[in-house]
Design a protein that fits this description.
mainly beta, 6% helix, Immunoglobulin-like, elongated, 4-stranded antiparallel β-sheet, 181 residues
Length: 181
């Protein structure tokens, strides 16, 4: 008797026997609001960047796949006023199309400079095979004014309100007040 039940297998289930579930719209079970984390455009960019940092310089090294890899030299967020250039060095995840990375530098609370004034800007074309790059921010009028600056990072073909992907910040201190890190 037991052998007959084992050979017969489980009893068949008919469509009429299945429980009926509520037909939910896709956003209620796939993109739940409580699971979504809002993207912060006022923080360093994420997503396409494996890493992004500010530095006093950069070096070009031979990478894992015999490619040129750009790496930061002396990463910091505090620079002396006589710094000849500030670099934003980044590494990218794999991408399937060429694009540009833009950096636009604005003052934050610096006397005599309006916050909407573009102090300096740079752009780098990222080819399909590029895995890293840098932006070079030159001081206005030969020297940085001490204070806090923000750099908007944009990606695409041109800068627009839709191309903003994040913001980086750095501080410029008077040359004699710099500390060694």
């Amino acid at each position: 008797m037991v052998l007959a039940v084992l050979l017969a297998g489980p009893a068949p289930v008919w469509a009429g026997d299945l429980p009926i579930t509520k037909n939910l719209p896709v956003p209620e079970f796939q993109n739940r609001p409580e699971d979504a984390k809002p993207y912060d455009f006022d923080a360093p960019p994420q997503g396409m960047f494996r890493s992004i940092t500010m530095a006093e310089g950069f070096e070009e090294e031979l990478g894992f796949r015999q490619t040129h890899e750009i790496v930061p030299v002396k990463p910091t967020e505090q620079f002396p006023a006589d710094t000849p250039a500030i670099f934003i060095v980044f590494a990218l995840h794999q991408h399937y199309q060429a694009f540009k990375v833009f950096g636009r530098c604005f003052p934050e609370g610096i006397p005599g400079l309006e916050p909407e004034t573009i102090v300096c800007e740079d752009a780098m074309h990222m080819a399909l095979e590029d895995e890293s790059g840098y932006l070079k921010l030159l001081p206005p009028k030969e020297r940085w004014t001490p204070g806090r600056y923000k750099v908007e990072i944009h990606a695409g073909e041109q800068v627009s309100e839709m191309s903003l992907i994040g913001t980086m910040r750095f501080t410029v201190v008077a040359s004699d007040a710099t500390t060694v890190k």
